[in-house]
Design brief:
Layout: H1 2-17, H2 23-32, H3 43-54, E1 61-63, E2 69-71, E3 76-77, H4 106-117, H5 126-131
Antiparallel strand pairs: 1-2, 2-3
Helix pairs in contact: 2-3
């Protein structure tokens, strides 16, 4: 029983420390950080991508079939972009993957800029291809007063 209580407490602490952005607040944060039009990618594309990758959650993680992991609000992959001490081929952003899980999203935004600067561009994100590409994305910024 004590173990169950400790597990529940740990879960509550983890959930309480995760920042989940509200859509318009996230759009304003992205805009303030120069993401609107960065490498030709619209603000609506970034908001759509992060909605479908992480639901705007800074501490989102996902384990992939190749044993790599995706981290943070952009779900940046450990195989190519960050070092998690496990599967990491290149560490293109030169960071620890844990840096992508903080409420200070500046590291995540800078890494996303690095990812989108590669030849694959925004197409590097599966969620963007599946949910945002060639779609009307106006609703992602609707009512945000940018």
């Amino acid at each position: 029983m004590k173990m169950m209580k400790n597990l529940l407490l740990l879960l509550l602490v983890t959930v309480a420390s995760a920042k989940v952005f509200e859509r318009c607040d996230w759009a304003r944060t992205l805009k303030r950080n120069g993401m609107d039009g960065y490498r030709g990618v619209s603000l609506a594309d970034w908001v759509c991508l992060t909605q479908h990758e992480s639901k705007f959650n800074t501490q989102a993680t996902n384990k992939n079939t190749d044993s790599s992991r995706d981290y943070g609000i952009f779900q940046i992959n450990s195989r190519y972009w960050c070092n998690n001490g496990g599967v990491s081929a290149t560490n293109g952003c030169g960071i620890s993957c844990s840096q992508l899980l903080t409420d200070d999203v500046s590291v995540a935004i800078n890494c996303a800029k690095r990812v989108v600067s590669d030849p694959q561009g925004i197409r590097a994100w599966v969620a963007w291809r599946a949910h945002c590409q060639n779609r009307d994305l106006r609703s992602y910024l609707s009512g945000c007063r940018l």
